[in-house]
Write a structure and sequence with these properties.
The chain is α+β, with helices and mostly antiparallel strands and 292 residues long. Helix content is 32%, strand content 25%. It contains 6 helices and 17 strands. Helix 1 packs across helix 4 (172-195) and helix 3 (163-170) packs across helix 4. The longest helix is centred in the middle third of the chain and has 24 residues, at 172-195. InterPro entries: SAICAR_synt/ADE2_N (IPR028923), SAICAR_synth (IPR001636), SAICAR_synthetase_CS (IPR018236). Residues 8-263 form the SAICAR synthetase/ADE2 N-terminal domain.
């Protein structure tokens, strides 16, 4: 997989290339990360699933963005010699607008899970968002909540922050805009997912600003890497839910005895196959189209 363009950055999953004065090429690899480490074993077709699902979601969410006077960064995912994705990365590349990215991960939660459960069990809240008593792992929240985090560098860990920290980072008006738009996008995403028999437990969005100051949805959107997807028909609060995301890999790593500090172990073939199946199932169930 070679691209004859200048490499701008390499993240846990994606390479970013310069594709002109105001364009970038985002290429999703088959790498998978967990606990702030990139694992040594790739998941076949993962990059293609992330790209195709993001492209689909950008289209679904465009009306919500427009209602806020916002937009998304996708220009094209179609291959093309002049103004498209290079043939060598077709299917896993997106041509996008270059933005000034905001230094905040915009997290929306509709259910209690993961780090949210840990913090809730300790304080009854997630940072400055108070939650009712009696919730357990997997509980549906009375209403979706905005629980932002820092945007960590490669190898570092995102840290939950309160709303005041978002205000400090981007200003009061922009912070309110991010909160309202994040929750609106989550609600629409959850509605679409529910119609496909999937619960959207939580997700993160990343936003940037275009040269005119307009708010733009960037990065990936509502994928198994950025979201927790649960089968609706097996939802049972009080325990860890089956999922269509990389929680399966996290669970295996935990059971393997890995210390999360040393180099992570290779994933067994059955874990790789089962993880690929979960990613593909998420794509097919959400979009109603076969992955091939």
């Amino acid at each position: 997989m070679t691209v004859d363009l200048p490499l701008v950055a390499r993240g846990k999953v994606r390479e970013i290339y310069a594709a002109g004065p105001d364009r970038l090429l985002l290429v999703a690899s088959d790498r998978i990360s967990a606990y702030d480490h990139v694992l040594p074993t790739p998941i076949p077709d993962k990059g293609a699933v992330l790209t195709r699902l993001s492209v689909w979601w950008f289209e679904q969410l465009a009306p919500v963005l427009a209602s806020f006077g916002a937009s998304h960064h996708l220009v094209s995912a179609a291959p093309g010699a002049d103004d498209g994705v290079p043939a060598s990365v077709a299917g896993r590349g997106m041509l996008v607008r270059k933005l000034e990215m905001l230094p905040v991960e915009c997290v929306a939660r509709g259910y209690l899970s993961g780090s949210g459960t840990v913090e809730y069990s300790r304080s009854g809240s997630i940072r400055d968002v108070a939650l009712p008593s009696g919730l357990v792992e997997g509980s549906r929240l009375p209403e979706p909540v905005f629980t932002p985090s820092t945007k960590a560098e490669l190898g570092e860990h995102d840290e939950a922050i309160d709303f005041a920290a978002v205000v400090t980072a981007v200003g009061a008006a922009r912070a309110e805009e991010l909160r309202e738009l994040t929750l609106a996008l989550y609600r629409r995403g959850a509605e679409i997912a529910a119609a496909a028999g999937i619960l959207l437990a939580d997700t993160k969005f990343e936003f940037g600003v275009d040269p005119d100051g307009g708010l733009v949805l960037g990065d990936e959107v509502l994928t198994p890497d950025s979201s927790r997807f649960w089968p609706a028909d097996t939802w049972s609060p009080g325990t860890v839910q089956p999922s269509y995301d990389k929680q399966f890999v996290r669970d295996w790593l935990t059971s393997s005895g890995w210390d999360r500090v040393s180099e992570p172990p290779e994933l067994p073939a059955d874990v790789v196959a089962a993880t690929r199946e979960r990613y593909v199932t998420a794509y097919e169930q959400l979009t109603g189209s076969p992955f091939c």
